[in-house]
């Protein structure tokens, strides 16, 4: 995991230098990284190093995943909730529906303040919940 990519994604300054990281072992690096995120209140202090390593492993697996369904039926409707402050990491994010139109002919797009990391945190989570309620009300 590259510290600069994480800093950009989380919008945090981890104050980690390349020299400090290169001079340490892999075990020291991940502990250092966890400690930095904890100091910045991005991780709970009670999170163990073992748990953090699990989170990193899941992150790495997600980044490496290349989901390509072989055959599928199009869905009747997809609702896409995306943050207005999202970083554009993938080519699909240049498309308005972020690829959702490959899976449905009807994609409702809702743009909410915040980004991927903050959409589930107040006050953005409240607005997200309101948008989801209205979407569910429309189909009920």
What distinguishing features does this structure have?
140 residues; mainly alpha; 2 domains; two-stranded parallel sheet; 5 helices; elongated
How would you portray this structure in words?
By secondary structure, the protein is mainly α. It has two domains: 3-64, no CATH class; 78-139, no CATH class. It is 42% helix and 9% strand. It has helices at residues 3-10, 18-22, 26-39, 49-64, 124-139; strands spanning 78-83, 107-112. The chain has a two-stranded parallel ribbon with strand order 1-2.
Report the radius of gyration as a whole number of Å. 19 Å
Total domain units: 2
Roughly what percent helix? Answer: 40-55%
General form: elongated
Total of DSSP H or I helical runs spanning 4+ residues: 5
- Which whole number gives the mean pLDDT? 83
Termini, distance in Å?
Answer: 43 Å
Short structural description:
The protein is mainly alpha-helical and 140 residues long. It has helices spanning 3-10, 18-22, 26-39, 49-64, 124-139; strands at residues 78-83, 107-112. The chain has two domains: 3-64, no CATH class; 78-139, no CATH class.
């Amino acid at each position: 995991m590259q510290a600069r990519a994480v800093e950009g994604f989380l919008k945090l300054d981890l104050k980690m230098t390349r020299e400090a990281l290169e001079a340490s072992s892999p075990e020291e690096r991940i502990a250092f990284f966890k400690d930095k995120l904890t100091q910045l209140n991005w991780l709970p202090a009670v999170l163990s190093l073992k748990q953090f390593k699990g989170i990193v492993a899941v992150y790495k697996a997600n980044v490496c995943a290349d989901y390509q369904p072989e055959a599928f039926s199009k869905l009747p409707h997809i609702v896409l909730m995306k943050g207005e402050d999202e970083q554009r990491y993938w080519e699909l994010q240049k498309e308005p529906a972020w690829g959702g139109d490959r899976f449905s002919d009807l994609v409702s797009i809702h743009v909410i303040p915040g980004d991927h990391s903050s959409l589930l945190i107040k006050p953005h989570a409240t607005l997200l919940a309101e948008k989801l309620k209205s979407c569910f009300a429309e189909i009920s």
